[in-house]
Amino acid sequence: MKRLDLIFSERELDDVLSTLEKAEVPGYTVMKHATGRGPERVVTEDMEFTGFGSNAHVIIFCEQVTIDKIREDIKSVLSYYGGVAYVSEATPL
Amino acid sequence: MGHNLFIQNALSPPILFFFLGAIAYALKSDFEIPSPLPKLFSLYLLLAIGFKGGIELQKSGFNYPVIPTVIAAILMSLLIPLICFVILRFKFDVFNAAAISAAYGSISAVTFITAESFLESQNIPFDGFMVGALALMESPAIIIGLLLVKFGAPKDRPIKKKMKWGSILHESMLNGSVYLLLGSLLIGFLTSAIDPSDIKKMEPFTGDLFYGAECFFLLDMGIVAAQRLARLNKTGAFLIMFSIFMPILNAVLGSVVAKFLNLDPGNALLFVVLCASASYLAVPTAMRMTVPEARPGYYISTTLGLTFPFNIIIGIPVYMGLVNTMIPQIG
């Protein structure tokens, strides 16, 4: 079992979620209003009224085969708009 | 006269609340407004000015100077980004110059609302059709900014970053603020034409609450502007100077056009404010989607951290003085 963490601008959330749906991931968790600092920009809640400001953090638990299916589409979104994606091992409790 | 206008403006509740927000940030107070609320208030303000503008537009009809003024406003939002681009290219690459130019060619609805409140406090009449000009000035500036990138970008720009015109037009014409503003304008127009009694039902929401909501929103804008101002040192002196002098230059251009159109002083001030203001809503979101190479820190920090506070605190009374000089009030 793998854990995939995606952090990107909320504006791209629909694109990313539709990619996940197409790959038939078993489920995902979405946390909106994520803020912080990346190498190039600071993301704060103060610009949220513009629909520009905050990030979304999406967590997916799935098998490697599912990650292989969504890899290119996710990388394409993240390389264009910015954002990060990391895969780690996950062990059920 | 000019001095009095400045004092009256600086001591009006919306500006005082703006200061209150800015001072809260400067003094590191733990005061904050929960994040969904500013969004709600910005949507409310757009709905209310759109609705009221539609009612006024129905009353005044499409006689002179409605059509020429709206056309002039659109032309200004096409011209201003080109002037900005020429200036900005001395210091910035095509992507950043185009994105900042688009922001300055577009408008700030909150600056416009603050100017309307200023006119009301001075008992200077103005017309509702100016809201139409406000709504129609957002998109052309975005399109010009993107055209500047399209024709000015290096030939080796990655293919995946080439622009799709469908999404550009969708983003520029149907972004949330333009959509709500134009939709509310149309609803106000239809309501006034079909059943004016419905206007009374809306009055407590779009009329009585408006001034308080504006003050509350400006309280939050004070915090946001102060935060952005604190980050301006990263943008450099050139951009700081640009964000003060460009609105003044645009205001002078706008006042010349307003005089040529023979606008009343109230409408002339609103026209000048539209030319002088810069967008921090529609343009940044459009630019981020279509020009990811441009740094948001440049076009947001300048428009929100300097140009917006400059316009609402100093600009509006100065522009009123400019208008009064060029277009003497009758009576």
From TrEMBL, chain A:
InterPro entries: N-reg_PII, N-reg_PII-like_a/b, N-reg_PII/ATP_PRibTrfase_C
Gene Ontology terms describing biological process: regulation of nitrogen utilization
GO molecular function: enzyme regulator activity
Domain of life according to the entry: Bacteria
Gene3D superfamilies: 3.30.70.120
Leader sequence segment: none
Name of the protein this chain belongs to: Transcriptional regulator
Classification of source organism: Bacteria, Bacillati, Cyanobacteriota, Cyanophyceae, Synechococcales
From TrEMBL, chain B:
Keywords: Membrane, Transmembrane, Transmembrane helix
Transmembrane intervals: 6-27, 67-88, 95-119, 131-153, 174-194, 209-226, 238-261, 267-286, 298-320
Source taxon at top rank: Bacteria
Protein name: Sodium-dependent bicarbonate transport family permease
